[in-house]
Structure formats: C-alpha cells, structure tokens
Design goal:
Helix content: over 70%
Number of helices: 11
Order of helices and strands: HHHHEEHHHHHHH
Number of strands: 2
Largest sheet: 2 strands, antiparallel
Shape: globular
Strand order of the largest sheet: 1-2
Length: 266
C-alpha cells in the first residue's frame, strides 16, 4: 500500500502539470488510505506537498509569462490570512471527539474525511461539467471585482485551512470570471495562489504535529517530478479531455471515501 501511495503521489503532480489542478484534492486520501497517516496531520502534510508542487508549477508557468503575480498577491490577502488563522488557532481547538449519534462517536478524523469527500464531489463536478467554459461565456463586469476576489479568497482559504486542499477548481473560475484572464494565465496564477496558501498554512502548523520529514520530502519529490512530466505531456494532449477523465476518477474516489467512512469507520 505504501508503494501504491508513492505512485499515486506522482499522480498528484502529474495532474497539476497537465490540467493545473485536481491532483491536490487526492493528496489527503492518498496519505490516509495508502500511506496510513491519521486524517488530521495528513492535512498538514498535504499543505506542504501541494505547496511545494504548486510552487514548482508556478515557476514553470512564470517563465512562460503565464503568472499574474499582482493578482495572486491580491487574491492571497484574504485567502492566506484565512488559512493561517484556521491552521494556527482553530484546528488545535477542535476536539478529537466531536459529537455522538446513538452509540456512534463522530471523531474529528472521520468528519475531516467526510468533508473532504464532499469537496472532492464538488471538484469532480467542476472538472466534468466544463465549468471553466461556462464562466468564459458569462463574464462579469468590473464592479466590485476586488470585493468578489476577497470573498473568493476567504472561501478558498477556508477549504485549504480546514482540509489541506489547494482549491484550484475554485480559484480558476474566479480569475476567469472576474478578471477575464485566459485559461492558461488563470492556471499559472492559480498555482502561485495555491502555493502561497498551502505553505503559509503549513507554517501555521509548526509545533502542532510530529512530522516524518523523510516520508514528507520523498512524497513531495515525487509530486514535483510529476508536475514537470505533466507539463511536458500536456503540450501534446487535449486538456479538456484530460480534465474530464480526471474528474470521473476524482468522483469515484469521493464515493469510495464516503462508503469507507460511513460503513467501515463507525
């Protein structure tokens, strides 16, 4: 299972390199079910893996002129603040046992995986339903652009802070809808935003969890390798078809997580 987990870790980076997102949504399930980590510290590991991988992808896109640094920093004002507050102050306050339904105790770990599965369903829907194309065809005006970006930043920051997910499937439509970016520039800018959110969130975790650095750095190296391979392969393949195929894969994973948590964890 650990070997499978390492292989799937490369898939995380491969997805980020091919379609600019999606792969980070699988990081926590891989760490929990294949590597064997507890869900709560797994969200911390995920922040580091996704952060470094996305930073590598952002650098690769920056060299091509496909990263709007100013927009990334503007978006990051609210998202980074939200992530840091959640990881530094909220997560340590959440009790191990949240509540009880009859004789069943709902733990923080179980709730984390159920919420993560729901986020995976949303991510899968975004990839399968061509939400990015719908966004392009219905652009918003310039009114309240900054307010909308700040609000999106809080939403993305909450997902990243609570669950360790990058949130690229939320960021990209926002950049295209509000700022009318091209898809390629939105993908590159999204990777920088994800990197900033994730790495700041990981810094907020310092001292809260015991980190197995050899394992963490090994998985991260595989993910970074995957992102560069994905960038090379992506030049020759249809991004839309890849996005839909990966969306169906994420959907099946989400269903598997829900079945596991509802029927085999209580």
């Amino acid at each position: 299972m650990e070997i499978l987990g390492l292989f799937l870790s490369a898939l995380v980076g491969l997805s980020l390199g091919l379609i600019g997102g999606g792969g980070s949504i699988l990081t926590v399930p891989i760490l929990v079910y294949a590597i064997g980590l507890d869900p709560v510290p797994a969200t911390s590991y995920s922040l580091f893996i996704v952060g470094i991988s996305s930073l590598a992808g952002a650098f690769n896109n920056y060299r091509k002129g496909l990263v709007n640094v100013r927009t990334a920093l503007l978006f990051g004002v609210s998202s980074i603040t939200t992530v840091l507050l959640i990881r530094k102050f909220l997560i340590p306050l959440i009790p191990a046992n949240l509540f009880q339904i009859g004789s069943r105790i709902i733990t923080h770990s179980t709730a984390t995986m159920i919420l993560f599965a729901l986020l995976m369903l949303l991510s899968a829907w975004a990839m399968i339903s061509d939400i990015s194309e719908e966004v392009v065809s219905k652009p918003l005006g310039k009114t309240n652009q900054i307010s909308i970006l700040l609000l999106y930043g809080v939403i993305v920051g909450s997902a990243t802070g609570l669950l360790g997910a990058g949130g690229g499937f939320l960021i990209i439509p926002a950049l295209v809808l509000v700022l009318k970016m091209t898809m390629k520039e939105a993908v590159g800018t999204s990777l920088l935003i994800i990197a900033l959110n994730s790495l700041v969130g990981f810094c907020g975790d310092i001292g809260h969890f015991r980190i197995q650095w050899n394992l963490l750095l090994g998985i991260t190296a595989l993910a970074v390798t995957g992102i560069f391979i994905g960038g090379l392969i992506g030049r020759k393949l249809s991004g839309d078809k890849l996005r839909k195929a990966f969306g169906w894969f994420v959907l099946s994973m989400a269903i598997a997580v829900l079945i596991k948590e509802f029927f085999f964890s209580f």
